[in-house]
Amino acid sequence: MKSTFFLLRHGHVARTCRIFLAVALMIVAFKAQGGVVLTSLHSFGVITNGEYPKAGLALGSDGNFYGTTAEGGTNGGNGTVFEINGITWAFSSLYSFTGDNGAKPYAGLVQGSDGDLYGTTEEGGTSNMGTVFNISTNGVLTSLYSFTGGVDGANPYAGMVQDPFSGIFYGTTYQGGKFNTGTVFDITPAGDLNTLYSFSGGINFDDGGYPTAGLVEDTNGDFWGTTENGGTDNNGTLFAWYPDGFHAGYLGTLYSFTGGDDGGFPIGGLVQPSGGGSFFGTTQNFGQGGVGTVFLWDGPNYIVDTLYSFTVSHDGGLPYAGLVEDTNGN
Fold first, then answer.
1. In the predicted model, is pLDDT for residue 164 greater than 50?
2. For residues 193 and 133, what is the distance between their CA atoms, to the nearest angstrom?
């Protein structure tokens, strides 16, 4: 099965305004409407170039796009890092993971303030429990940390976010920690990792477990995220981690999904509108149609407002990914 990248362009717009998307594993159908033109930029299928891109792309400060494939490459199929030139759209494979320095990068990349790209691998490393790495835009990779599967966590599915003030990166692991249900961690660009919180999967204070998505930093410097499971009904949670201030070092479970009209199993991450305020997200299951929702976190009232329930019949369903805001605030 081949994977592709495609470009959606509406009319004649500047290159910097083009919407560049990464497809998952297979495109079933596409219908052009309203002058939208789809251009296939690269088709995966040659194993040495990587296979199965699972995440979106990062736009580098050089105008090029950078991404990962979970499999393929020249070193036993452990995955790759690649580049798409922002002018010519030429594809280049930058690096193939060896396994010892990481394998199966499911998450996308984030460009640090030093210009390097930072990411995680779900497997590989010295204990085969995943890694944190950085890679220069010319393909020089450094493995920064190998998870052990102990209290430090294991198997990070998500990418990381860099705090613009401290320069420290924050992320989550899907497993490991004190209860083997995931962690929140921070790590310096030099590779010094600190486990901030171990999820209990609901054993401890009805918190969550198994965070699939990464974290989002708000305008106050606090970090927000979701867990796939755990909470009072074991249908996942919405939480906040407070690194500073009055609640420094505290993780708060703000909402437990019930598996009813509010949805359940929020696998995707959150997004906060550019103007601040409440967060938006998706759940992978439940809702009125039984196949997921789009929701708004109503912070002042500590509730989730279900904005839309998917039905499968005409609008899809089972959303794995989060949302992204456009320039009009949608």
1. yes
2. 12
Q: How far is CA 31 from the centre of its chain?
A: 27
Residue type, 86: G
For residues 236-263, one letter each, b for 16 or more C-beta atoms within 10 angstroms of the residue's C-beta and e for the rest, the string is: bbbbbbbbeeeeeeebebbbbbbbeebb
Q: Cα 240 to chain center, whole Å?
A: 16
Per residue in 94-122, pLDDT (tens digit) is 999 999 999 999 999 999 999 999 999 99
Tokens standing for residue 63: 């105008």
Reading across the β-sheet that carries 58-59, which strands appear in turn? Answer: 58-59, 65-69, 80-84, 91-96
SS (H, E, C) the chain: CCEEEEEEEECCCCHHHCEEEECCCCCCCCCCCCCEEEEEEEEECCHHHCECCCCCCEECCCCCEEEEECECCCCCCCCEEEEECCCCCCEEEEEECCECCEECCCCCCEECCCCCEEEEECECCCCCCCEEEEECCCCCEEEEEECCCCCCCECCCCCCEECCCCCCEEEEECECCCCCCCEEEEECCCCCEEEEEECCCCCCCCCEECCCCCCEECCCCCEEEEECEECCCCCCEEEEEECCHHHCCEEEEEEECCCCCCCECCCCCCECCCCCCCEEEEECEECCCCECEEEEEEHHHCEEEEEEECCECCCECCCCCCCCCCCCCC
Q: What is the arithmetic mean of pLDDT over 218-244?
A: 94
Q: Which residue has the tokens 């692991």?
A: 173
205 vs 254: CA distance, rounded Å: 11
Contact between 56 and 48 under an 8 Å Cβ cutoff? The reply is no
4-13, 41-50, 146-155: which has the minimum mean pLDDT? 4-13
